[in-house]
């Protein structure tokens, strides 16, 4: 039997199949957190951030780093411990409270006047500010602009019909010359409905190409038992560096 057609990367195309119409509601995300269906969370943090930290930070200190759709990502703690200012956004209050309690970080909670029902959880030390609201409620007048972004499990979790809106917002939140590390996933979208959703390289170019230089830094084979159970026969993580030039 010829396995070459299944080799990682060879099936990559720009067709996202029926995923185009798929919508996961905020309530469904909250439900996932409630029942602990959070297989996307990485206890140990992400090896690609560890590996490419210098590319993101470029030797600078005291940067403002944004974590869209942050969940309880432990990488927020890493960057805060290095002296950077971390801002995240997440619809699940439980995720944010878990983040602080799992790292034994004291925090305070305050309303965000510009956002109806919005709250901000801030570490007492002041360098981690996590907004509990939909990312689409944010704007640079509320959260300011950022020097760096770690986007893992974020663009790939956004409903495909909202990608343009998400990218426009991210572009608005970025300082000139800022760096955006983006992790996407690649698999056969006809075999799994997502999330995470398959985001082809052609789409990254059409979403961000007008204001960013885009470089693919690495493709990593991340295929595991979980992906096998989803019915897949390959699964890659693809890391891009977006440099905001305009
Ligand atoms: N980036 C995190 C979480 C990935 S899962 C990590 O790497 O672990 C995607 C997360 O986005 C979920 O926690 C979900 O609750 C949250 N989310 C989904 N839609 C959102 C929205 N519109 N605004 C803010 N958060 C959202």
TrEMBL record:
InterPro entries reported for this sequence: SAM-dependent_MTases_sf (IPR029063), Thiopurine_S-MeTrfase (IPR025835), TPMT (IPR008854)
> What is the top-level taxon of the source organism?
Eukaryota
Gene transcribed to yield this protein: TPMT
Instruction: State where S-adenosyl-L-methionine binds.
Output: 29-40, 69, 90, 134-135, 152
Gene Ontology CC: cytoplasm
GO annotation terms (biological process):
methylation
| Keyword Lipid biosynthesis attributed | no
Organism per entry: Lepidothrix coronata (blue-crowned manakin)
The subcellular localization recorded is: Cytoplasm
Cross-referenced SUPFAM superfamilies, in alphabetical order?
S-adenosyl-L-methionine-dependent methyltransferases (SSF53335)
Q: Which reaction does it catalyse?
A: S-adenosyl-L-methionine + a thiopurine = S-adenosyl-L-homocysteine + a thiopurine S-methylether
User: What Pfam family is a match for this entry?
Assistant: TPMT
Enzyme Commission identifier(s): 2.1.1.67
Q: Could you tell me the keywords of this UniProt record? A: Cytoplasm, Methyltransferase, S-adenosyl-L-methionine, Transferase
Listed PROSITE patterns: SAM_MT_TPMT
Family membership, please give it.
Answer: Belongs to the class I-like SAM-binding methyltransferase superfamily. TPMT family.
What broad taxonomic lineage does this protein's source fall under? Eukaryota, Metazoa, Chordata, Craniata, Vertebrata
For this entry, the protein name equals thiopurine S-methyltransferase
Q: Can the keyword Cytoplasm be found in this entry's annotation? A: yes
> What HAMAP family would the database entry show?
Thiopur_methtran
**What Gene Ontology molecular function terms does this protein carry?**
thiopurine S-methyltransferase activity
């Amino acid at each position: 039997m010829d396995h070459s057609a299944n080799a990682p990367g060879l099936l990559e195309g720009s067709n996202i199949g029926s995923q185009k119409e798929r919508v996961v509601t905020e309530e469904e995300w909250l439900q996932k957190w409630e029942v602990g269906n959070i297989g996307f969370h990485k206890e140990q943090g992400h090896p690609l951030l560890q590996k490419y930290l210098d590319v993101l930070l470029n030797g600078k200190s005291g940067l403002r780093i944004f974590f869209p759709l942050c969940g309880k990502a432990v990488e927020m703690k890493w960057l805060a411990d290095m002296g950077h200012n971390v801002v995240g956004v997440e619809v699940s209050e439980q995720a944010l409270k878990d983040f602080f309690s799992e790292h034994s970080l004291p925090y305070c909670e305050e309303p965000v006047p510009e956002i109806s029902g919005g709250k901000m959880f801030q570490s007492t030390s002041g360098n981690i500010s996590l907004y509990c609201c939909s990312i689409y409620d944010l704007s640079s007048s509320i959260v300011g602009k950022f020097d760096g972004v770690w986007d893992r499990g974020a663009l790939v979790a956004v409903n495909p019909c909202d990608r343009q809106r998400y990218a426009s917002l991210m572009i608005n939140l970025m300082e000139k010359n800022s760096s955006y590390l983006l992790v996407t996933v690649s698999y056969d979208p006809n075999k799994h409905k997502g999330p995470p959703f398959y985001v082809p390289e052609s789409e990254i170019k059409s979403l961000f190409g007008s204001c960013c230089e885009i470089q693919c830094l690495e493709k990593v084979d991340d295929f595991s038992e979980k992906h096998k159970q989803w019915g897949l026969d390959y699964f890659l993580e693809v890391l891009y560096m977006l440099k905001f030039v305009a």
